[in-house]
Amino acid sequence: MMRKGHKAWNKGYTKDEFPQLSNAGRKKGCSTWIKGNHHTQETKDKIAVARIGMEFTKSHKKKIGGSIRELWKNPKYAIMAMTNSTKTNKTARPNEPEKKVIRILKSLSSNIKYVGDGTYWISGMNPDFVNEENKQIIEVFGCYWHCCKKCRYPNKDRQRQNDSSRISKFKALGYSVFVIWEHDLKERNTIAQRIQRFVS
Fold first, then answer.
1. pLDDT, tens digit (0-9, with 9 covering 90-100), for 48-67
2. Is residue 108 within 8 Å of residue 192, measured between CB atoms?
3. With 0-12 CB in 10 A as exposed, 13-18 as middle and 19+ as buried, what is 132?
C-alpha cells in the first residue's frame, strides 16, 4: 500500500523508456482485484510459515543485480530514482561528513553549493557539491561505503571501479574534481586549507 503523499516511482514514464520493467506489468484489472480482496488471517499465517527459510539462489541474486545495474546505466532512470529517493527520505541528506564540508565552505565564503539532494545533475550523475560557473566538483566519500584503503575497510572492487569511473566522467566533461574522504575531516584546519586551494 502506498503511503499518503507518495506517488508511484514510474508515474509518467512508458515501458519504451524502461524496457527492463515491461515484464513486470500486471494484467488488466489486477490492481482492482487486490484492492477489493484481502487475505484472511488464516491465509496470512500460511504465507508467513511458507516464507520461513526462503532465500534467493546465487544465480537469482546475480540476475536481479544485473538487471538493476542495467537500469542505472540509463541517465533518465538514475535521475528519477535518486530524486524520488531524496524526496521520500529527507533525513538521509546531507549526511554528517557532508554537513562538516558545508560548514567549512560557509566559513570560506565559497561559491560551491551542496547539491547532493538531487537538485543538480550532470549526465545522470548527482555530485555532492558543485560550482557550475567554474566547473568545480567536490565529492565526499564515506570511508565505509567507499571502501577506504587507509582505514582498511573491505575491498569492494565494483564500488571502487564505480567511484573511479564517476570521477573520470566528470573530468571528461570539463570539471575539476576534489575528493574528500571522511577521515580527512578529522583535521578540520588542514582540509579547510586544501579546499581553499581547490576553490581559489
1. 777 666 666 777 777 777 77
2. yes
3. middle
Residues near 160 by beta carbon (within 8 Å), at least 6 away in sequence = 146, 147
Domain co-membership, 103 together with 74: no
Helix or strand holding residue 69 (H, E): helix 58-72
Instruction: Say yes or no: 48 and 103 in one domain.
Output: no
Residue 122, C-alpha cell as written in the block: 550532470
CB atoms within 10 A of CB 100: 19
Q: Do residues 82 and 172 both lie within one domain?
A: no
Q: What CA–CA distance (Å, rounded) separates 22 from 8?
A: 15
Give the domain range for residue 122. Answer: 93-199
The verdict on residue 122 lying in a domain is yes
Domain count, the chain: 2
Q: What is the DSSP letter of 190?
A: H
Which amino acid appears at position 147 of this protein?
Answer: C
Residue 156 cell numbers, joined: 569492494
Strand partners, 113: 130
For the chain, how big is the Rg over CA atoms in Å?
Answer: 22
pTM: 0.59
Q: How many CA atoms lie within 13 A of 180 on its CB side?
A: 30
188-200 confidence digits (pLDDT tens): 999 999 999 998 8
Q: Which residues contact 119 (CB under 8 A, 6 or more apart)?
A: none
Q: Which three cell numbers stand for residue 49?
A: 510459515
